[in-house]
Specification:
This is ABC transporter domain-containing protein. InterPro entries: AAA+_ATPase, ABC_transporter-like_ATP-bd, ABC_transporter-like_CS, P-loop_NTPase. Keywords: ATP-binding, Nucleotide-binding, Transport. The chain is of the alpha/beta class and about 350 residues long. It has 2 domains: about 220 residues, P-loop containing nucleotide triphosphate hydrolases (Rossmann fold), CATH 3.40.50; about 80 residues, no CATH class. Helix content is about 35%, strand content about 20%. The protein has a 6-stranded mixed sheet, sandwiched between helices. A hairpin with a 2-residue loop joins strand 11 and strand 12. The longest helix has 18 residues. The two termini are about 30 Å apart. The structure holds adenosine-5'-diphosphate and magnesium ion. Magnesium ion (MG) binds next to helix 1.
């Protein structure tokens, strides 16, 4: 079911350069969280710290009752097996075909027979849509396929925690949409705890259950998707809406004169755009850890921006949700016949009449 990760007061510096300080957040078990931030704010450093590849200066990373930075080497090695990681560059071995690349962790870390290895590799290749590409070399395939292969390799040891660094970097918008759908589908199937690093705003707005934002060496905010998408906090609002007006400038921070000029021009951050419905698994099922649309807003007395939670067909997902959940959870499980959401592009129920 995935495990919770609790980060407390984490600080990391290289020499005199503090990358971020006092970062605290909880990745809820089984949920999808996204970590956002301008380039160079230390998102990759954060992922590497989580898996113990970099040692933080201060703070805790609790996985169950184990505090990673304080584990003896042997226990750290064991705990790392809970993690599947897809780094930014994919890091496939160029001289190995996809099958051998994906089999690598199994051959390295387990004593499984080649028969078992084959069963697992083929299962994961099917999950990421790569069946038939076993013999291909990394140099012969597209960027999107490389990411899929990296994902399959991150999945072979059945991780409780999946960390993915910029799955969308270098991909076109359509490939990114497919990859986002794959991430949601994988979460629905394996129920691990996911942390995705990205700077793609659309990914951040539609994929996760939770969003965090790193800026100016701090975690500005971390919480449920609806909390950040309805937030008036200037940095959060500027970043999640990809605006020029706000504290973030061309080279990370605007200086005082730029901000003053902006204020004189009467630049207004404007109204918040609607909160989009969350991407659903392509079989239309509700993920076990999925939050009800509008749930956070309702529980916190926040009125979401006008037009929120309405899909491309004009359906309001706050109103539809109870009916949808009931229709998708018949006794014995499985999608209800003729019901909602037959894989219609991933938005809740897109393509099906209510
Ligand atoms: N091993 C390292 N040694 C020294 N500095 C590093 C190291 N890794 C990253 N950095 C620095 O940490 C900062 C954050 O890097 P990174 O995590 O890659 O940013 P992001 O992933 O958010 O774009 C950068 O200034 C980078 O140069
Ligand atoms: Mg990075």
């Amino acid at each position: 079911m995935g495990v919770e990760i609790r980060v407390e007061g984490l600080t990391k510096s290289f020499g005199r350069q503090t990358i971020w300080q006092d970062v605290s957040l909880t990745l809820p078990a089984g949920e999808i969280s996204v970590l956002l931030g301008p380039s160079g704010t230390g998102k990759s450093v954060f992922l590497k710290s989580l898996v113990g590849l970099l040692k933080p200066d201060r703070g805790h990373i609790w996985v169950g009752d184990r505090d990673l930075p304080r584990l003896p080497e042997a226990q750290l090695y064991d705990t790392r097996k809970l993690f599947g990681v897809l780094f930014q560059d994919g890091a496939l071995f160029g001289s190995m075909n996809l099958y051998d690349n994906i089999a690598f962790p199994l051959r390295e870390h387990t004593k499984k027979s080649e028969g078992e290895v084959k069963r697992i590799v083929m299962e994961k290749m099917e999950m990421v849509g790569l069946l038939g590409a076993e013999k291909k070399l990394p140099g012969e395939i597209s960027g999107g396929m490389k990411k899929r292969a990296g994902l399959a390799r991150a999945l072979v040891l059945d991780p409780e925690i999946l960390l993915v660094d910029e799955p969308d970097s270098g991909l076109d918008p359509v490939r990114t949409a497919y990859l986002n759908q794959l991430i949601v589908d994988l979460n629905s199937q394996i129920n691990a705890t996911f942390l995705i690093v990205t700077h793609d705003i659309n990914t951040a707005r539609t994929v996760p259950d939770n969003i965090g934002l790193l800026f100016r060496r701090e975690l500005v905010m971390f919480g449920p998707r609806e909390m950040l998408l309805s937030s008036e906090e200037p940095v959060v609002r500027q970043f999640l809406n990809a605006r020029k007006v706000g504290p973030i400038g061309m080279s990370e921070e605007k200086d005082v004169s730029e901000l003053e000029a902006e204020a004189k021009m009467g630049h207004d951050p404007g109204r918040l755009p609607p909160i989009p419905p969350q991407l659903m698994p392509s079989d239309g099922r509700v993920r076990p850890t999925q939050h009800a649309p509008g749930g956070w807003c309702a529980a916190h007395g926040v009125v979401p921006p006008p037009g929120s939670f309405i899909d491309d067909l004009g359906r309001n997902w706050v109103e539809e949700w109870p009916r949808y959940v009931a229709a998708m959870s018949p006794v014995g499980g499985g999608p209800a016949p003729g019901g909602f959401g037959q894989a219609g592009g991933g938005r809740p129920g897109a393509g099906a009449a209510p």
